[in-house]
Amino acid sequence: MTPIIRAATARINPVCRTESLRRTIGLHVFDAGEYHAGVADGDRSGVPGVAGSATGRKHRADMSESERLGDGAGPPWKPPRRPRYRGTHPRDFREKYKERNIEAHPEMAMHLRAKGKTPAGSHVPVMIEQVVAHLHPAPGEIVVDCTLGYGGHALEFARRIGPGGRLIGLDVDRIELERTRERLSGIGVPASFHRSNFAGVDAVLAKEGLDGCDVLFADLGVSSMQIDDPDRGMSYKHEGPLDLRMDDRLQRTGADLVRTLGEGELAETLRDLADEPDAEKIARAIVVRRAAEPLTRTSHLVELVLAVKGLTTASWHKQRASHPALLHPAARTFQAFRILVNDELGCLKRLLGLAPYCLRPGGRIGIITFHSGEDRLVKRSFREGVRTGLYYAAAEEVIVPQRAEVASNPRSASAKFRWAATEPTR
Predict the structure, then answer these.
(1) 194 in helix, strand or coil?
(2) Within 13 Å, how many C-alpha atoms sit on residue 412's CB side?
(3) pTM of this prediction?
(4) For residue 365, what are the β-bridge partners?
(5) pLDDT in tens, 253-302
(6) Do the beta carbons of residue 142 and residue 165 sit within 8 Å?
(7) Which of 49, 367, 386, 404 is buried deepest, with most CB atoms within 10 A?
(8) With 60 as the cut, is the pLDDT of residue 71 above it?
(9) What CATH code would you report for 251-341?
(10) 128-224+345-421 in CATH: which number?
(11) How many of the other CB atoms lie within 10 Å of CB of 103?
């Protein structure tokens, strides 16, 4: 026992010196790496400055013995505590340190997945079995994952193309691309990663010195990592800036759109990109509201849409409690503006036009969509490709997640998968 622990326990009633009180003491003092900042054994990873981490060791090493234990002139040094939160469980994204470092806390992942939830800051890949079954990546093949994201699909591809295969990953999200690059560093096959929109897949292949690939895959829409982070301003669920950009190199944000688009353009966006039934009413409300004050936060847009639909936050929560499957009133509005900010349909059209020429003979393309407009584009492109001979075959029917997958991952509910293939070499 260190002098700090000995001094602390000496001030406690001897009758109460139980293990639970030792843990309580651990909230405030540094005991040779056993406790730190209220985190007990096994829970220290992922917390900055944690005992036993490189940061914690360096901080202690830079201090003299008198600084660590106190020299009588003041209280002894105490390591920084992790941020506290209300209640028994963290609610804010920034407080969920275990979920944001889920590889170090697999028990947390299992707990949340059993409840049909996705750990904050991570992503559960959709329809893995169907994707692999229809694209059947094989040893020695080249796979291009056009939407790398968390790397779930890429990891499954890599497991099947070795030895001799090659993985190429694309993503516009700088933060997540670097995290996934590190996560996939030991996948066992050569891999390269590019910060690029899939609309530029032809340029990526040229940069790699390739004339084509065997498998081309894209999982469209926004990732769970982007949805969960309030600072990304992607979701009606979290307070944050009204940003909506997947790529921070883009100049125009969601706040810029609602500030500059005309009433007719706003209504057209909501109607065409999200099938919003109250498109005209919401567009009018935006124009009236922005004349008085700018809409710059996600909460501003949520409150406006709720008001248009005759709801308040409290009345919506009451409705949701009795009907859990109800779509949030602002979901379509956020979807429409996100699609427009990122030019998602324009990029998809370019990918569909390039894809047949980026595939080798016998190559396969698979695309997962989450919006009816996207699915219509993919369906039309693949069928037209078969008719004109660009493709040898294509999915006759759309493929959707099985009930068990939707139950365990509700975010997969609206996913639709289609595939096409070029003619094999004769």
Answers:
(1) strand
(2) 21
(3) 0.72
(4) 216, 420
(5) 999 999 999 999 999 999 999 999 999 999 999 999 999 999 999 999 99
(6) yes
(7) 367
(8) no
(9) 1.10.150.170
(10) 3.40.50.150
(11) 10
